[in-house]
Amino acid sequence: MNSLIINGNWNELAGKLKQLYGNLTEDDLLLNEGKEEELLGRLQIKLGKTKEEIRKIISNLY
Q: What average pLDDT does the segment 46-53 reach?
């Protein structure tokens, strides 16, 4: 996955992640341009998964 902002669909993907993981908040899923690693770090802490696992989850949702 080159970028989490794939064709501007991050809001849709964030909604799907929130459905899968009800403990995620809007702040956890906030994606600022150029701050994808920061987002992955927050998700890594919150979900207890590696960044690679999170990338795979996001790719599978897409």
A: 96
Decide: residue 54, CB within 10 A, 0-12 exposed, 13-18 middle, 19+ buried.
buried
In a domain, 56, yes or no: yes
Q: Residues 60, 32: contact at Cβ < 8 Å?
A: no
Share of the chain above pLDDT 90, in %: 61
Q: Which domain holds residue 56?
A: 35-62
**Count of the separate structural domains present in the chain:** 1
**5-30: per-residue pLDDT in tens?**
555 788 899 999 999 999 999 999 99
State how far the Cα of 9 lies from the Cα of 4, in Å rounded to an integer: 9
> How far is it, in rounded angstroms, from Cα 48 to Cα 32?
22
